[in-house]
Amino acid sequence: MVYSESEMPAIQVKILIAGGFGVGKTTFVGSTSEIEPLNTEELITAASMGIDNLSKTADKSTTTVAFDFGRLTIPQHNIVLYLFGTPGQERFWFMWDELSAGALGAIVLADTRRLQESFAAIDFFESRGIRFLVAVNVFDDAFAYEPDEVRAALELDSHVPIVLCDARDRRSAMSVLRGLIQYLLAAASAYSA
């Protein structure tokens, strides 16, 4: 069967949004999704006392317990991005294996007030060969570091892109997604050459 360009099925791409607890994954998925995002947010209860570090997220009252889901269509390239936000707390990391199946790439959201919480996501994607970029979510009360300073602190290879973003701002979050797609395309092109 021969398809005309307008009849070609869309290319479906699975993207993970990962990072530590409270770095903005749910916000990122919500700000970029063209549909009402699916959230598995639950109230933070006394059971998380001593387990979750709320010191930098004092206003946070809910947490993702399974995943967030959103969708974004890029009609000019006939691509549909399926966005899966991972849970941030260690006790829910077992979900990452399931969520990563079939993922083409990932975004590791980082908070410079607690960069150490980024290592688990970085290690996860590196160990599975899933390409990722690091998006530093710029919080109002966080010190502004240059991308090279973040790269050194996270001990990232030079090929891993680092960008600054505001997960609340759709344009900023969309720029991160564009950066990831460009990185994935460049890596695929280099691999095939």
From TrEMBL:
Pfam families: ATP_bind_1 (PF03029)
UniProtKB keywords: ATP-binding, GTP-binding, Hydrolase, Nucleotide-binding
InterPro entries attached to this UniProt entry: Gliding_Motility_GTPase (IPR052705), Gpn (IPR004130), P-loop_NTPase (IPR027417)
Keyword Nucleotide-binding: yes
GO molecular function: ATP binding; GTP binding; hydrolase activity
Alphabetical list of SUPFAM superfamilies matching this protein: P-loop containing nucleoside triphosphate hydrolases (SSF52540)
Family of this protein: Belongs to the GPN-loop GTPase family.
Protein name: ATP-binding protein
Species of provenance: Nonomuraea mesophila
Taxonomic lineage of the native organism: Bacteria, Bacillati, Actinomycetota, Actinomycetes, Streptosporangiales
